[in-house]
Structure formats: C-alpha cells, structure tokens
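Hey all, sorry for the wall of text incoming. These are the three entities for the joint prediction.
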Amino acid sequence: MILGVAASLVAHNPRIDWFGIAPEGTLVATAVAVLLLDLVMPRRDSWQTSRLASVGVLVSLGFVVALYERHGGTTPMFGGAYVVDNYAIALKGFFLVVAYVTILLAVDYIGEGDYYQGEFYFLLLTSVLGMTVMTSARDLITIFVALETISIPTYVLAGYRKHDRRSNEAALKYYLIGAISSAFMLYGMSLIYGVTNSTLLSDISDKVGQTGHGKVLAVAIFLSLIGFAFKVSAVPFHWWAPDTYEGAPTPVTAFLSVASKAGGFVAMLNIIFFGFSNRSNVWWVVAWLLAILSMTLGNLTALRQTNIVRMLAYSSIAQGGFMLVPFAAYGIARDHGHLSVAQTSFQAVVIYLLIYGAMNLGAFGCVIAVARRTRSADIEGYGGLFTTSPALTVCLSMFLASLTGIPPLAGWFAKFVMFRSAIDAGGWAGTSLAIVAGVNSVIAAYYYLNVVRTMWFKAPATEAGPVQVPSALGFSIALCTVLVLAIGVYPQLVGHIGDLAAKAASVATGS
Amino acid sequence: MTTFHAPPLAASVMTEYYRQYLAVAVFVGAALVMVGAMLGVGALLRPKRPQPEKYITYESGSDPFGTFGQQNVRYYVYALLFVIFDVETVFVFPWAVNADHSGLGWFGFGEIAVFVLILVAGLGYLWRKGLLSWA
Amino acid sequence: MALNQFLLLAAFLFAVGAYGVITRRHTVLVLASVELMLTAVNLNLVAFGAFNNDPVGQVFALFVLTIAAAEVGVGLAIVLLIYRNLRSSDPDDVDVLKG
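and here's what came out:
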C-alpha cells in the first residue's frame, strides 16, 4: 500500500528496483495468504498458518541474503525516500531472524491457548513488514508510515489474551502511549517540514545545517525525539513498559522488547544520523539525559522486582539506555567537531541491537519454557531449576550472563563497542557517560546473577518434574544460544555487519 | 515529486480567493436578520402558558427514554468499515485524477489494483467471520 | 493571510489536545484529544505545503489522516473489549452493551 501510493506520486517513469523490495513484497503476500488460509482452514488445523508464516519469513530472509550477495552499493528509490544499502540489508536480516524466532516461541503458546491463530501471525508479519520498511526509510513520511505499521499490530497483539484484564490493560496502556507519542512526533515532523520544505532526510540534513530558524528547529527536533523516546521506552517516558510487558502474552513481550524496540532505534538512527547530524548541539543533551536516566532508573528499579518478566522489562529499559549512549556520544563528538566518531557510534548502535536481540529473545524463550510448568513468572519459582532441568538452566544462565556483559559471551562485545563510542567522544560529557554506564553494568550484574544464583543454589520451591520444552521452543532457544556463544567467541561476526552498516551510513551522511 | 501541481498561491490570488467569500458573509448576515426577525416577532405576539409536557423532547409522538450517548455497539463495526473505505478513497482519488494524463498507465493501475485487492482480502475476511450480517 | 495565523491556530489546537490528554480520565475523551493534536499536525502540514507551494505537505497530511483512522479503529476496539470485560465481571450492572 505504502509503496503503491508513493510510487504513483513519483515521476512519469517510476524506476523501481523490484529485487530491492522483494523481501517486503514477500512479507505482504505471506501476510495476506496467512489471513486467507486461516479462513478456509477448519479451526483445528489453523496451526498450519504458523508454517506458512515461517516459510514466508524464511523466503524473505533468502531475498535479503541474495540482496547482500548482489551488490554493495546503495539503491535509492522513490526519489531517495527508500534506500536499500548494506545498513538496511543488515537490519532487514536481523528483523526477519527475530520474526522467525518469535514465531517459534509463539507457536506452542498460541496453539495451546484458546487464541485466534491465523490473525496472530498476520499481525506479527505486518509488524515485521513495518520494520523492514523502516530500515530503508529515508523520508519523514516513510518513517512515520513504517513506525505506525510496526506499532498498530502490536497494540492488538499486546491485548491478545482477550479475557484477561491484565492483558486488556497492557494493550490500552501501550496503545495510548503509542498514539500520544505519535502525535508529538508528528507535530515535530510537521515543523521540520515547514522549516526545511522537504521530507527527504538528505534535504533536511542540508537545510538544518544552515543558520536560521534556530528556535523552531530546536522545538521540532525535541518533539520528534520525545516521540521516539516513548517508542523505545527511555526514562522518563518508560512507565508503560513494565505493565505492558507483564500483561501481554510472553511471546509478544519478547517481540515487543526486541523487535519493536529495535524498530524505534532504527527510526532514531535514520532520523538522527541522516537528518539531524548538523544540529547536534540541539539534541545531544536530550540523548545524553535519556541515556543516563534510562540506564540508572531502569537498573535500580529492576533490582526490586520479584517477577522475572517485570525484571526483564526494567532490564530492557536499562539496555535501551546503553543503546542510547552511542547516540549521545555521536552528538557530543559532532558538537566538538570530531566527525570520525560517527562511524564508531553508528556501528555501536547496530552491533548492540543485533546482540541484544539474540540474548533477550533467548532469555524470554527460557522464561516461556519455565512458565509452562510453573504457570507463573515469580523469580522464587526458579529455585532449584538446575536439579530438574539442567540444560534449560545453563541456557538461561548464559543469556543472563550475556546481558550482564561477562566476557566469553556476546554481551561483552556489545558493551565494549558502546563504551568505546562514549570514550571516543571525550570531554566531560562523554567521560561521564562512560562512568555511569560502567556503574550501571555493575548494578545490573547483581539482579541478573541473582536469578542465576536462585536457579543453581536455592532449594526447589515445589516438587515438580522437569520442564517439558516443545521442539519449536527448544530450537529457538538453541539458535539464540549458538548465536550468543558464536558472537562472544568470534565478535567479528557482527563486527563485520556493523562495519558494513556504518560504511553505508557514512556514504549517506557524507562524514 | 514534481508532477503534482498545486495552484500557485501568490498574495494577490489569496485576497481574490477570500473576496469570493464575501457573498457567503452577506448570506450569513441576511440569514441572521431574517431568522432573528421571525423568532423575535413570534416571541412578542404569541400567548405564553408554560406546561411541563411542552418541554419534553419531541420524538414523533412517543415518549423519549434513556439518555443521550448509548448506542448499540454493533454500530461500531459498521462505523469502522465505513471509515476504512472512506479513507481508501483518499488514496484512490489522486490516482484517478492523474490516471489518464500523467503517464502512470498500466503501472499505476497495477499499483492501485494491488492496493484495492489487499483491502478486498480484508473485506473477505470480515465477511467470512460473519461481521457483515446483523445478528 | 499570513502563515503565522495558521501556525498559531495549529499550536493552539495542539495545546488544547495535549491538555485534554493529560486531564481527561475517560479513554474515549483521551482519544478525541489525540485526534485534536493530529488535526493540528495536519493544519501545519497543509499550511506549510500551501505557502511553500509544495504538494508534499498535503500528501503527508493524507497519510496522517489514514493512519490516524486505522489507529483510532484499533483504539476503540481495545476500549470496547475492556468495557465488555468490566461489565461481565459485575453482574449487578445493567447489561446495556449487548452485541
């Protein structure tokens, strides 16, 4: 729909790189097919829709890989509003893998409850479509449409347990905050359009650099950033996240905390690096404050949680703070005139996103598996898990250790690139960022490792047999485990992707 | 995005544009005077005997019940359906206006066909789920 | 007519909407306030587009309009769902919302 209408507005001979949008096309076709298949299938066979959805995601992923193999250059479409470069390709791949793992996490959860199945996968695929579009969006309209395509299906997904009041509340809070933040963001965008007379980020970047309209631009940039801060649940715009994460079905929570959040960060990457680079004096303070507040408050509140899903919710707020550090670092460096930091900070965000996705999805996979037995998410219930299900315990311990940032696991590399960007930025602002991030890593270690301690050393709370892990769930946990280990031992794996992305971005920003 | 022609809006054009609204202003003024005169004369001449029944809302002779604002929820689905297809025209309309002379040709037709087909798939879904029948 | 008049009206609408979002307790009224904020955005976009002689503003406004409609559809569905659940949990309450 987006592409269709955008195309019809472009010039007489719209040149469309059909191969470039093949991943998105596949997702659209799959989503519609899933919805129609669900209609013709009898209710008891509707789990088949999950198969179709995962095949669609994998085909789309195949196109992404083929795109990577095809070329290294950028392909601007629709007058530069839609670009398929290495950065976009890398993140498209990431989102599709996340979508695949989410389907694996959800298939038993959704299949066993009394849920509509076809619609679940339809909504999931639509949201993923928005994410893949977002990676290529270089225009305010496209960014807005992609962001809403990501968000609107997730409002419904959050309330998927229709008869559970907590799920209702989760959906309502998420929805209201999403709608309000969109309104703020749009008001900011409308002012930016008014000042620069263009919605293309490249044009905006040029015009923002010229003097004049200082106050209007400051308000505009500030309002748009507030909109994104809501989406990525940065403190002080985070209060919806723990309630929504707790109330939503757990596979949806995993999806929200990884994919939806990453979608918000990709939007921020696009708009800050490609659009607002030349006005870093306006936004670096905002990014700096958001980063410091999110890290500190997220971690301190996570310390007090007794429910593991709520704990992971606050931890994901804190991790979001860590991801905001490179943004602030870039702004600081840009303000001081060091342009070289653009590369390292861009790379840091991309790498952090990829690694965070793997370890957080894995952790949620384990939580879903354990909840199948205990029917609750209390941390107390994890006591003695090692004696009953050792393999699962080892996996969950690994994910938590990786989230902490302990060296042989992927998380340390994410933290490493994040610290490097802050230190490269220099000055009192960069140094203070690095110090706060360091202190917070230590605080985070306490609550992550507390869960590990409970699992290994506490006596079991109840007499219960081992956790039965269905094959799809087991496979997804195994996949995340392999990724976390492989990246930790051989960080060049994502380092290379981050390099490619940053290079593509530096071509686009001209720095 | 240069093929989409908006009318030029020079200052003189804008004042000309607003001058056309002068007629509307005259109409509004005339309407106010006429209605005010009729009601005013009526109020002066008519006898005044207030009774409570006279203040009940007139609903074709039957007594009104309930309060304002409680509609059947079923209307929600229809309202939503209406909004969706109403908004669809927002996208089809610019295409239709430009279809024959802007060189969009079969390409544009294909694009809009895909757009409409996706909406039709949604409509088919609603139909199969029984949301179109009043039950 | 100056551009500023449109912008001031839009800013006023946006402020009224934001005030409504903060003060109203009823979800439907919050939604209405958000719509008011979006109206301000559309007014801004169309005014900028007209005064800069650029059609993109109008196109942007159309997208905002469409997506706001989709968003409100989902929002009302969620409100309705909650309303039903709360009603059903309270048998003393008159079941006015059948359907």
